[in-house]
Amino acid sequence: MTTQIQRVEVFRKAQRLTHWLVALGVIFQLVSAWLIQHADVDVLAWADWHVMVGQAMILPILFRFYLMLLPGSGNWRFLLPTREQRHVVVNTLRFYASLG
Questions:
Q1: What's the CA gap between 47 and 66, in Å, rounded?
Q2: What is the pTM of this model?
Q3: Environment class of residue 87 by beta-carbon count within 10 Å: exposed (0-12), middle (13-18) or buried (19+)?
Q4: What would the pLDDT profile of 30-73 be if each residue is shown by its tens digit?
Q5: Burial of 6 (0-12, 13-18, 19+ CB in 10 A)
């Protein structure tokens, strides 16, 4: 008996693209901040790149917010718990309020 595995795309391509642009931007921010602080590099040049990439990350983040307004799997409504999930939210808040 063999089962056939199929790939199912949950998020649209634009959502995946914005995700990876932000992820790569965050990685660059971490690496450049580490280099500025700990390595023997041209600090001003790396600081400029650090700031420019940080400012450029605003575009995919804003585009992702726009995509959240469109219907589909990445809609903002999926951030809200359903009626069946509310007890999990309450239990989680109790857990953190009691410090575990």
A1: 30
A2: 0.71
A3: exposed
A4: 999 999 999 999 999 999 999 999 999 999 999 999 998 888 77
A5: exposed
- C-alpha span between 16 and 9 (Å, rounded): 10
The two tokens of residue 61 are 């983040």
* CA pair distance 93, 31, nearest whole angstrom: 34
In sequence order, which residues have a C-beta less than 8 Å from that of residue 72 and are 6 or more positions away?
12
- How many beta carbons lie within 10 A of that of residue 15, not counting itself? 19
* 8 Å CB contact between 29 and 53: yes
In angstroms, rounded to a whole number, what is the distance separating the alpha carbons of residues 48 and 25? 14
